[in-house]
Write a structure and sequence with these properties.
569 residues, alpha/beta, TIM Barrel, Chondroitinase Ac, Chain A, domain 3, 2 domains, eight-stranded parallel beta barrel, six-stranded antiparallel beta sheet, 25 strands, globular, disordered N terminus
């Protein structure tokens, strides 16, 4: 009997211990951190192209390249149609191949469930699901046209999607709970309605004409001071009503249609997320295609997990940990600011693959305490050691102990510059730190040869008073005391440099007023050890700091510099 009790206890305790070792989120100051293998972890990653994990041969070919590129994490699709090609019959061989290859190449994995929706459409649903449109109905436009989009209002659609997702996740848990290779899961991909802002099927229209759920109204009332400005303005435009239909509470336009549809999508995802928590308790998120270029809902994927709909998603899908943007438009700095909110940590799930990504990754980690940065179709990038992204990722992986140590503590800033945004001024202690693009130095011929400047960027970390880390590429920083400036002449000089005092000419010398000045004591290129301590490489005083005038890292070069300042008068 004692032996039987022991084995029963072991069955319950071992899975619990395994789950406790899984990745999870924690707060540090104002930052939300991903914890992997017991330590804060930054996803220095990339997302595979949509079809790049559909072939075992492609997986075997791509993953060693990703290691050479310097990734620590890869985002990989898990395809419903290939997981359940025949209804009720599951094939997990691609998932197993991904996990094995990730372990062999020292990579972590974020799986993306391509289920009922991928980029709005149902293109990765199995053929047996698509063909049986009566059992698994579609969304409809206002004109009555059926779409290649499964209906979020069909219980049959949900049950089929969730059955496959749960079976797949149970398999992941069975092969990964001990190792923890899979660190996060994305549910669906770029959910959203196209052509119209909402589904006009009979089931959807019936709910649209029904009262707004009291649960959502209560959320709006309880969080009124913290609501997203667009949501607050929409609600206030109708007098902050406490009951009524969707149109009565929010008005009769496509933006109300979008709010209703977001609520419906979020409820669907929440049901999947709640079950996922009981199977494999890793962080869960959803990603969004942007509402860019002045498009209206339906012209962009309406009702997805967009920033202006965050209150809808938080209320209807509280089990989801965060909303992530997919960035393919101009205005990178403005877009990321929309998603680093008091109630949403920043994770760049997708961004267009280009050379500027190297410094942009530094920027989001330094400025917004980002969880991760992942260019799309990463396998198409270069794995040459001098490629910008490869250099950037190698430097970021080395810098990670310091970045995670100072996240959320108001001691770190990200920097990003181009031809239109060449300068930023920061203040720490009694210092005024002027940060610029490296091409602003007058002797650099590339600054004025007519070519487009590559972006320059990095991170500034305050270690202590008069002690900083500067890392990145294409940067120049000057350190001065606040208020430090040349003294004004005590009297205005004439053209000859003289003024008349008591009938006699007297030259007035210019000089400095005020107190202490800031000087650069030393600039050392360093490595960062795993414990966050610094390892000296070389001294960069003299020509490298322009005889104590500034600290710089040239475009095309990624470095970590340890800067010590001193005061003098």
């Amino acid at each position: 009997m004692k032996n039987a009790c022991f084995w029963i206890l072991l069955l319950f305790v071992c899975p619990l211990q395994a789950q406790q070792s899984l990745s999870h989120l924690q707060k540090q100051g104002t930052a939300t951190q991903l914890v992997v293998d017991g330590k804060p972890f930054l996803i220095i990653g990339g997302e595979l192209g949509n079809s790049s994990a559909s072939s075992p041969a492609d997986i075997e070919r791509i993953f060693p390249k990703l290691q050479r590129m310097g990734l620590n994490t890869v985002l990989v699709p898990a395809y419903w149609d290939l997981t359940e090609p025949v209804e009720g019959q599951f094939d997990f061989s691609l998932t197993d191949k991904v996990i094995r290859q990730a372990r062999e190449n020292k990579l972590k994995v974020v799986f993306l469930w391509f289920g009922a929706w991928k980029n709005s459409m149902s293109c990765y649903a199995p053929l047996w699901f698509k063909e049986d449109y009566k059992k698994y109905p579609r969304a409809y436009t206002k004109a009555g046209k059926p779409l290649e989009i499964a209906s979020a209002f069909s219980e049959n659609v949900f049950k089929a999607d969730n059955r496959a997702f749960s079976a797949w996740l149970k398999h992941v848990a069975s092969v990964d709970a001990k190792e923890g290779t899979v660190v996060m899961v994305q549910i669906q991909n770029e959910i959203g309605m196209l052509e119209d802002a909402r589904d006009y099927s009979k089931e959807a229209t019936k709910l649209f004409n029904a009262p707004v759920p009291s649960h959502f109204i209560d959320y709006l009332l309880q969080n009124k001071k913290l609501l997203h400005p667009e949501m607050l303005a929409k609600w206030e435009s109708r007098g902050c009503l406490k009951k009524g239909t969707w149109q009565e509470v929010f008005g009769g336009d496509v933006y109300t249609d979008e709010i209703f549809m977001a609520w419906s999508y979020a409820l669907y995802v929440e049901r999947m997320a709640k079950e996922a928590r009981t199977i494999y308790n890793v962080p869960l998120y959803v990603n969004a295609a942007m509402n860019s270029r002045n498009r209206k809902p339906g012209e962009y994927p309406s009702a997805g997990p967009l920033a202006h709909l965050i209150d809808v998603w938080h209320c209807a899908a509280p089990t989801i940990d965060f909303l992530a943007p997919d960035l393919y438009d101009k205005g990178f700095v403005d877009w990321v600011a929309k998603y680093k909110l008091h109630n949403n940590p920043l994770f760049i799930a997708e961004i267009r693959l280009e050379d500027n990504d190297g410094v942009r990754a530094f920027y989001v980690f330094g400025e917004h305490d980002a969880i991760g940065f992942c260019p799309f179709s990463i396998e198409d990038g270069s794995d040459k050691p001098d490629a910008p992204l490869v250099q950037s990722y190698a430097t970021l992986k080395e810098l990670m102990p310091l970045l995670t140590k100072y996240q959320g503590k108001a001691s770190m800033n990200g920097l990003l510059f181009d031809q239109d945004n060449q300068e930023r001024i920061l203040s720490y202690d009694d210092l005024r730190i002027t940060c610029r693009h490296n091409f602003t130095l007058p002797w650099d011929p590339r600054a004025s040869d007519g070519s487009v400047w590559p972006e320059g960027g990095g991170v500034l970390i305050r270690l202590a008073r008069n002690e900083y880390i500067v890392a990145g590429s294409g940067l120049v920083l000057e350190f001065k005391k606040e208020g430090e400036e040349k003294a004004k002449h005590t009297q205005a000089l004439g053209e000859d440099g003289f003024v008349s005092v008591g009938g006699k000419g007297q030259k007035v010398e210019s000089g400095w007023q005020g107190g202490m000045r800031a000087g650069i004591g030393s600039v050392d290129e360093v490595n960062v050890n795993e414990d966050g301590s610094l390892r000296y490489i070389r001294r960069l005083n003299g020509d490298q700091d322009h005889q104590g005038r500034h600290v710089r890292i040239s475009v095309g070069q990624f470095s970590i510099l340890h800067v010590k300042l001193y005061d003098y008068k």
